[in-house]
Amino acid sequence: MSTETSPTGSRRKLLLAVAALAVLAGAAWGWRAWRGVEVATQAVQRRDLVQTVVASGRVQAPHRADIAAQITGAVVAVPVRQGQAVTAGQLLIELQSAEARALEKQAALAVTQAQVRLRQLREVQAPVAEQALRQARATLDTARAAAARSEDLFRQGFIGSAALDEARKALELAAAARESARKQWESGQPSGSDYALAEANLAQAEAGLDVARARLRYTRITAPRAGTLIDRNVEVGDVVQPGKTLLVLSPEGQTQLVVDLDERHLRRLALGQSALASADAFPGQRFAATLAYINPGVNAQTGSVQVKLDVPQPPPNLAQDMTVSVDIEIARRPQALVIGLDAVHEPDGPAPWVLKLQDGRARQQTVHLGLKAAGVAEVLDGLQAGDTLVTGADAVHDGQRVRARATPAR
């Protein structure tokens, strides 16, 4: 015997199934509502917080040395190249020196002649003059004695006036000869005119030799100090003129970074602030720098202020005019209470707030923020270390039941 299902029974079974599904769905929804919406969270923690200003700039030596010739001459050698490191005193450019060497020899000969003249004055003329003076004095003494005898004989009538006049003239001539010999002797003494003239001639000759030697030295242009040649504008065969820049030297040990910062950072800058920098060509090699100069003026066109940072120990691959990235530390908070800015609502408003996970619900909490840096902020008031905050959940409202999203196993 077959059994048939009536249409009324089928509808009843369908309704029962739908009702069962509805009950199950409602139960599931109620369970989820009771557990709360799954949200991303973060914990409030304590750690050192550093605020930096990030900018880019260039490497620059505080002083560049422009190397130029001091005389006109033809270049015969340039034994250096652009970008080469040189030591103090190293030959950079050599000029034609044949004429300068000839002038030096000529000046040296003039010095020798002047020395010989002074030596001759000391060793020959001075002794001769002294001997002539002794002889003139002796002749004068003899003439005086003869004149005295002639005076006696004339008074006694033994000789006439003509003989007396001869004796007197002989005395005058002897006195004049003695005076001439004395002057000749004095001129050859260290305080005399001939001696002074000989010394002046020697000094003039020595000065001429110094000039000739300096001119010869000018044919060899050397590095005034150690550094790197960052520009070269001379080749062998060029005829150079005095004062024209031929090479540019960047001295070593005086490296600075020149950076233009937005003027809004000016109030936070202070001399001595530390920084970390890296050349764009070598981003993985960071080095220390110190803020050494803040331009008191602001560029009206760009709204920026120029600062300079000293680099006490520049890396060997840091070259002049390289582009660098600089992080200047403008503030530091040791062991500050820190939260991510992605958990803060209206962070720049008058009353920023967060949603704190408390007893399974999101509770709005006003916070007082301090230092901000690199996506995080310092909390001065409103939270404690270990508090859990809802992040990235704009749809969550105050009082809503929520639960922390489970971290996937790794």
Structural write-up:
There is one protein chain. With 410 residues, the chain is α+β, with helices and mostly antiparallel strands. It folds into 3 domains: 49-59 and 254-404, Efflux pump adaptor protein, beta barrel domain (Elongation Factor Tu (Ef-tu), domain 3), CATH 2.40.30.170; 64-96 and 219-251, OB fold (Dihydrolipoamide Acetyltransferase, E2P) (Beta Barrel), CATH 2.40.50.100; 99-217. 34% of the residues lie in helices and 33% in strands. The longest helix has 59 residues, at 98-156. The radius of gyration is 52 Å and the shape is rod-shaped. It starts with 6 loop residues before the first helix and ends in a 6-residue tail after the last strand.
Set out the fold topology.
Elements: H1 7-35, E1 37-43, E2 45-60, E3 65-68, E4 73-77, E5 85-86, E6 91-95, H2 98-156, H3 161-187, H4 193-217, E7 220-222, E8 227-232, E9 239-240, E10 245-251, E11 256-262, E12 274-279, E13 286-294, E14 304-310, E15 323-340, E16 353-358, E17 361-366, E18 368-373, E19 376-381, E20 388-391, E21 402-404
